[in-house]
Amino acid sequence: MRTQVAIIGAGPAGLFLSLLLERLGVESVILELHTRKHIEERVRAGLLEFNTVQLMHELGVGDRLRRQGLEHGGIELRFNRHGHRIDFRDLAAGKCVTIYAQHEVIKDLVRARLATNHPILFETTEVLVHALDSTAPYVTFQNGGVSERLDCDFIAGCDGFHGVTRAVIPAGALTVYEREYPFGWLGILAQAPPASKELVYVHHDRGFALLSMRSPEISRLYLQCAPGEDLAQWPDDRIWSELHQRFATDDGGQLTEGPITQRTVTGMRSFVVEPMQFGRLFLAGDAAHIVPPTGAKGLNLAVADVRVLAEALGAFYARGSSDLLGQYSATCVRRVWKVQRFSWWMTQLLHRFPDDNPFDHRRQLAELDYVTSSRAASQSLAENYVGLPV
Ligand code: FAD
Ligand code: DHB
Fold it and tell me: Closest residue (by CA) to atom 52 of ligand 1?
C-alpha cells in the first residue's frame, strides 16, 4: 500500500487531521488499534472550545452537534458553600463552549471519513514505523491476520499517550517535561437531570468536585480521589454522599441522584515532549502532551495541533515548501505551554493537596475570591477556558 500521509490512531487528532487533509487534497490512510464500536463508545471528554465547534461546522460534520450540543455561556466556581458565576459571553467577546461527548465527535468524524472512501484500518496491531530520517518512511503492521506495509511521505503519530510512535524516537532526541499530581478523579455518568444548567467547579475541604452533563437527562460528575483509588471501595451510596457534601451550599440547592451507568478512576499528570517531530514523524495530541483534565483542554489541544500540521502538509504538497513543516513543533509548543499553564493553574486552584498546610489553603481561597471578584482575573480565566485564538 502507498499513501501520502500515514496516520496512526483514530482519536480526535487522527480523525480531524484526515478530514483537514482531505479538504486540501492530500491522501491519508488511518491505522487504528481498536474496533469502530470500541472507539465510538469510549467515554472521555465532553467539552468543546469555541474553535473546535467552528472547525466541526467548517468541515461539514456539525449537524448532530448543532442539534444535540449544549452551549454554555459561563461556569460556576463554588467555594465556602457559595457559587460565583464566570460569564464567558461578557468576558470573552461573546464566545461560549459546547458540551458534546467526545465519542459523539468520534462518530461524526468516522462517518465523514468513511464517506470519503479513504480507509480507516480498524484492529490494526503490531504497528511499527521505519526510516523516519529518510524521505521514504514506511509503516509495518498486522491487519486481519496479514502482515502489511504502508509506504508514505510522512507519518502522523496520533496514537495517544500510550501509543507506539513517540516510543520509537531515540531518547536523546526528545526532552520530556513531566509532573504527576498526588490525586485522581473518580468520574461517573448518572441517569439524573443535571442540578445546574452550567458546569460547577467546587473547591471543598474534602477535595475538588465537578458537575458536568451529557444531556438534559444525564449528569457527568467527578470527584477528587487518591490516584489509584479502588472503585470497589466506592459503592453508589458512598459516591452520592461524598458528592452531596462537596456540592452543598448555604442556599440549599440539591444534586439530583440517579442510577450510575459508568464509573472510572483517572490519574492526573502534566506531560510535554519537545520537539514534537523526529524526521518525517510528526506527533500530535496526547502522543505529545497530556494535561490534567481540570481545564477540559486535552481534546481541544489535539485539534489545535492537527490544524497546524494539516496546513504545513498542505503547503508541502501545494508549493513544495517545507518551511511550515520545519516550524511545526515550535508553532504547536507555544500553545501547548500556554494550555499546560492554564490546566495546571485550574488544578492547583481547585484541588486539596495531601501536604497542604493552612497557609496554602487560605491562599487558594484568596485566589478564588480574587478570580471571582476582579474583572481582570475572571477575564483571564474566561479567555483561556473558551480557547485561546488559533
Ligand atoms: P486519543 O483519543 O487517545 O486517540 C489515540 C488513538 O490511537 C486511539 O483511538 C487508540 O486506540 C489509538 N492507538 C493507540 N495505540 C495505537 C497503536 N499502537 N496502533 C494504532 N492505533 C493506536 N479533553 C477535553 O478537551 N475536554 C474535556 O472535557 C476532557 N475531559 C476528559 C475527561 C477524562 C476523564 C479524560 C480521561 C480525558 C479528558 N480529556 C478532555 C482529554 C481527551 O480525552 C484527550 O486529550 C483526547 O482524547 C486526545 O486525543 P488524541 O487523538 O490525541 O488521543
Ligand atoms: C468535562 C470534563 C472536564 O475535565 C471538564 O473540565 C469539564 C467537563 C466533561 O467530561 O464534561
Answer: 285
